[in-house]
Every structure is written in structure tokens, then in C-alpha cells.
Design brief:
The chain has about 375 residues and is of the alpha/beta class. The chain has 8 helices and 22 strands. Strands 5, 6, 9, 10, 11 and 22 form a 6-stranded mixed sheet that branches. The protein has a 6-stranded mixed sheet with strand order 16-18-13-19-20-21, with helices on both faces. The N and C termini lie far apart (about 50 Å).
Length: about 375
């Protein structure tokens, strides 16, 4: 059957007495969400729910995660059956910083051009935990709160009109078409607190590298625990709507054979990096891939993981393209990546994370203003 997405298109949102969708307008009972989230986790002190929309003079600080509201219907397994989706809206969690860095979203002005979330209605869930909550519990509370709020929102809107149906299918078997066979290798952070990813409910460091059904990825099987700089924050929303996977599925059987997804981690120690890279390359080879596309989360030491993988794939005769950001200094003249290899001759840059952007004052600021000093670039 594949995965069937029943989508309701949200045009705007407001706080109201009852959560639901009518004529494309999402009404959100913020008090209900707040009560349910504080009741489910003893370390949550308070929850405030806000609505911001494209064009608002609003800024969201210390963003933990962004999640598209979805829920399963009919008891289907993840990656199959029907999933209800609210499009053009996202749940954003924010609150006091666990450690450092974190994301920022501007809904208008020059900063809005640097985030896809400025184009969507946002239900911002601002969470404060009890003073003295240990860092791991703090991070887990906010992560699970966002997932619970997104699921609750979708469940309460499950009866809304279905505006679009998107059916996703994938057959991993090699066809006789003679088309190039392309694998996707997704490198995710897996370095512990603030630098982690959850794959089917388990920490990436425990389960990766591994093969992953692309439909499971697009159906919420990968959750972000990445609390790093805004420019390097791969949110849960990005995993739910992974553009490389969606493009490879769209061309499958017509332009190429989509061989499948390999997810791999980015350990901290060199020996672990080497073992992980070797296993990731082995899995790509097992797919019978002619070519591979790689995306990388994080910067600095993950560049070494990337270059090990590119070098080994190219040596195995697998043409490889890597998509990466750069840290090239504020003037763009510094070395872009921490590591390099001659085999990395096909790189797609998604921008220089050292570029300085001046952000003007906003009428509305959601999130802990004093923590701006600990945001990347907050100085």
C-alpha cells in the first residue's frame, strides 16, 4: 500500500476555545495543550502557547525543534498506511537554553529569508522546566513536549477536510531499466547531549549505521535531538520532509533507480569515525549503487567523517556528491571545511555559516531574551 498522506492545508491560525480546522483556519486551544504537557512531565514548570504567522514582526528565540503536526490513523505501522498531516503549519518548541547555541526564527525582515519556517504559521510552545532539572532531563522534556503537542494538534484536527492526498511508494528491488542506481547517505549528529538524533525511538549512536526505509523516514521515524547553531539545526520537520528523499522518490523508475537510504552517525573519536565510515560505505555497496548523494549535519569534526566516506565510495567506483555548508570566515576567504580529500570533487554548498546578518528589533519576542548571549552569533 505504501504511505498515504491525507493533508489539510492551513492558511492561518488563531488561539481559540476549541482546537480544530474550519475553512483552512486552524484554531488552537493553548490552555488545553499547556495543561496536557505539564501533566505528562513532572519537570515541566509551565507552558505558554503562542501563534505567529508569516510577515509578523516576531522573533522566536532558543528554538529547540520544529515538528510538522501529524498522526497515524487506523492503527497503521510507521511508514505505511494513512497519516494525517497539517500542511503550512509547524509546532516550534523553545525555552531556556540547556547548554549553548540553539536556533532562531524571524517571521519578517532580513532574517526571514534564512529560514523556511518564516513562510509557515507557527504554533510556538514555550516550555520552562523546574529549576535544577538535570541537562539530559531538560532536553528530553522539551523534545518530547514538542512531539506530544504536534501529535495532539493533528489528532484534534483529524476530522478536518482533506485538501490533498499524496501517495508515496518505494520498491527497493533493482529494476531491469538500465537506469543509474542512486543511494542516499544521511549523516546525522550522534554525539550525546545536544548533539543527537533518534531513529525509530533509539539514539543514533546505538543503531547507526543502518539501512532505513525512506517511507519510515518521511513518516516521523527520525527525530532531532540537535540543539546546535541555527544554521546547522536539522529539525524533525526536515526529517519528515527530507527534500533529497522526496526528490529521489519522485524520479524513481523514470530518471533513476532509488536504491535506498543509509543513515550513519558522526562519532567523536577517530577510531569510531573510521569504523562507522567503513560500515556506511559497505552498506551503500550492498545496495548495488552506481552513485550516492550525501547530506551532513553539523560542522567541524563531522567534516572528517564526510571525507572518509567520500574517499572510500569513490575508490569503490561509486560516483558521489556531497551537500554541505561551509565555515569560511565572515569574509568567505577562510578554509571552508575542516577536512578535505582530492576525491571530493563534487560538492554542493548550501552557504557560509560564518556570514554575519544584522537582525533588527521586533515588536514581539518569544523565548528567553537573556539567553541571546549564548546563541551562536549572539554577541
Amino acid at each position: 500500500m505504501g504511505l498515504v498522506l491525507h493533508e489539510s492545508i492551513i492558511r492561518s491560525a488563531r488561539l481559540g476555545a476549541k482546537t480544530g480546522v474550519e475553512h483552512g483556519v486552524l484554531s488552537v486551544n493553548g490552555d488545553e495543550i499547556s495543561a496536557q504537557l505539564t501533566a505528562r512531565d513532572a519537570c515541566i514548570e509551565s507552558v505558554a502557547v503562542h501563534i505567529v504567522q508569516p510577515g509578523d514582526a516576531a522573533r522566536v528565540l532558543c528554538v529547540k525543534d520544529v515538528i510538522e503536526p501529524r498522526c497515524k490513523t487506523g492503527g497503521a505501522e510507521i511508514g505505511a498506511g494513512v497519516t494525517r498531516v497539517l500542511r503550512n503549519v509547524a509546532v516550534v518548541t523553545c525555552g531556556p537554553i540547556v547548554g549553548f547555541q540553539e536556533g532562531i526564527i524571524d517571521m519578517s525582515g532580513p532574517g526571514a529569508a534564512y529560514t523556511p519556517f518564516s513562510e509557515r504559521t507557527l504554533v510556538v510552545v514555550e516550555v520552562r522546566v523546574e529549576e535544577g532539572t538535570p541537562p539530559h532531563e531538560h532536553e528530553a522534556a522539551l523534545r518530547s513536549a514538542g512531539l506530544a503537542a504536534a501529535d495532539q494538534l493533528a489528532m484534534n484536527c483529524a476530522a478536518a477536510a482533506i485538501d490533498r492526498v499524496d501517495t508515496l511508494d518505494w520498491d527497493e528491488q533493482r529494476s531491469d531499466s538500465g537506469l543509474p542506481r542512486i543511494a542516499y547517505l544521511d549523516m546525522v549528529l550522534s554525539q550525546g547531549l545536544l548533539h543527537d538524533t533518534w531513529v525509530r525511538g533509539r539514539s543514533a549512536g546505538d543503531v547507526l549505521p543502518c539501512r532505513l526505509d525512506p517511507l519510515i523516514m518521511l513518516d516521523g521515524g527520525v527525530v532531532s535531538g540537535n540543539c546546535v547553531s541555527a544554521c546547522d539545526k536539522t529539525t524533525t520537520f526536515h526529517h519528515q520532509n527530507n527534500p533529497v528523499v522526496k526528490e529521489l522518490l519522485a524520479g524513481h523508475g523514470a530518471r533513476w533507480d532509488f536504491a535506498g537510504v543509509i543513515m550513519t552517525n558522526e562519532p567523536t573519536r577517530l577510531a569510531a569515525k573510521q569504523r562507522s565510515a567503513e560500515r556506511a560505505v559497505e552498506l551503500v555497496r550492498e545496495l548495488g549503487a552506481d552513485a550516492a548523494i550525501i547530506t551532513k549535519e553539523g560542522f567541524g569534526n563531522p567534516d572528517a567523517d564526510l571525507m572518509m566516506i567520500v574517499r572510500a565510495l569513490e575508490a569503490a567506483g561509486i560516483a558521489t556528491v556531497a551537500i554541505t555548508d561551509e565555515f569560511a570566515g565572515t569574509d568567505g576567504a577562510s578554509q571552508s571545511l575542516t577536512d578535505a580529500t582530492p576525491e571530493a570533487d563534487a560538492l554542493v554548498s548550501v552557504g557560509n555559516a560564518n556570514e554575519l546578518i544584522e537582525l533588527p528589533a521586533m515588536q514581539t519576542v518569544i523565548g528567553p531574551l537573556p539567553d541571546v548571549a549564548r546563541l551562536a552569533g549572539g554577541y
